[in-house]
Inverse folding.
């Protein structure tokens, strides 16, 4: 009769940062997203604008592709990122 053994504890991946530690960007940072065609190829564009009265550091968390880098935005500044395809979208803006 075959026997099964549980995987050793060392084989279980442990998250480096629990989700509760990551915080959302302030509500005064506005996100706009759209899909467009460039050179016959679909792209997804996300643009974040700092409407706050203070500087912020944000990072775009993309679904379906790699996340953006951490950027600093002064009041009134914006930052755009685009990814290939129609599927990717920013699922959240995080403080960083």
């Amino acid at each position: 009769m075959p026997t099964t053994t549980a995987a050793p504890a060392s084989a279980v991946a442990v998250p480096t940062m629990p989700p509760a530690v990551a915080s959302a960007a302030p509500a005064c940072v506005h996100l706009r997203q759209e899909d467009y065609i460039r050179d016959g190829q679909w792209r997804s564009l996300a643009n974040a604008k700092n409407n706050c009265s203070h500087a912020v550091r944000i990072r775009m968390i993309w679904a379906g592709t790699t996340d953006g880098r951490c950027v600093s935005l002064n009041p009134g500044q914006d930052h755009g990122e685009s990814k290939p395809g129609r599927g990717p979208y920013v699922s959240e803006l995080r403080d960083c």
In short: The chain is about 0% helix and 45% strand. Confidence is low (pLDDT under 50) at residues 1-19. Strands lie at 29-38, 41-50, 56-63, 71-73, 78-84, 89-95. The two ends are 54 Å apart (CA to CA).
